[in-house]
Amino acid sequence: MRLAVCLGSACALALFLFTGCNQAKPASQPQPQQRVVPITSVIEKPLQATIDLPAELTPYEVVAIYPKVSGFLEWIGVDRGSRVKAGEPLIRLTAPELDAQRAQAQSQLQSAQAVLLAAKAKLASDEGTNLHLHTAAETPGVVAGNDLLVSDQAVKADQANVSAAERNVQAAQETLKSYTQIAQYLEVRAPFNGIITERNVHPGALVGPSVDSAQAVPMLRIQMLDHLRLVIPVPQADVSEVPNGGTVTFTVPAYPSQSFSGIVARNSHAIDQTTRTMPVELDVKNPDGRLTPGTYAQVHWPIHRSQPSLFVPRTAVMSNQVRTFVIRVADGKAEWVDVKTGVYQGDVVEVFGNLHSGDSIAVRGSDEIQSGTSVKAQTAALQH
Description:
The protein has about 375 residues and is an alpha+beta fold. The protein is built from three helices and 23 strands. The protein has helices at about 1-25, 95-135, 145-185, and strands at about 35-40, 45, 50-60, 60-65, 70-75, 85, 90-95, 185-190, 195-200, 205, 220-225, 225-235, 245-250, 255-265, 275-285, 295-305, 310-315, 320, 325-330, 335-345, 350-355, 360, 375-380.
């Protein structure tokens, strides 16, 4: 009986020890692995680049010639494509009624001058009589006082008549001058050296000033083609360093293998609210006439920054529907940093944001790596 009790106690003790050992040494859990992220450094360097911008060639000067007076087209000496020089006669009109008005104005001037001469002659006569009366009046009783008063008033009236006649002569002269100036409009001359690019009238046509200027058709259109303007809409992000006076090259579709150049001459200093661009003009010399106004050109616009720029690999920039960002890696943690992109240069792109030169960023951006995620950085080379 005692032997059975002893055996039972020994078994219980062994079971207790086995259970205790199992409870003292629980099984270890597997640890999650950190994601390996290839990283590179943000680099800082001066930006020297060009971007291709569309532009349009326009004449340096262009004038649409309209008739200033009504008349019949008597002669026209140019046609589309004619080269003209400043001051060269282009069109001659005839207006018989204008000649009659001018002759009438000449007659009125002569009549006014005759009236003026008569008024001056009467004034001179009355002034002489008045002088004799005043001389005679020095002797008491020779001239009545009323006669002196009448003579003085006659002189004053003559002086007023002379002044009125002088104003009439001046008015007649101005009228004749205006008709003479209008008669000069009957001959149209070239305002500058250029080429006739449009002709809409022929001899015998009746022309005259149009009431509706919006629908008026010019007789001729002349353009200056040996000197052109190249108008470039520069994006607002690239207007801070416009190279005034600098030389810029461009190409046109008609001569794809040839490069042309112009000088940056004018800057509007205002952003177009619709296109968010600023018009900049180049002066382009065109002595051989190879370049044609209205032609679209591709301009190689130089980009300069006053300060060095930050660059990252193109693949580092990630865009989704909400934001554009790169992933900065610091102390084993991923952080999304919002950026804006600038100029692309090979495999790298200019960025603007809360970044600094030397920051470690993921070589390939991905929204699968959330901000705050623990990552293991692996250095990669930045190609630039």
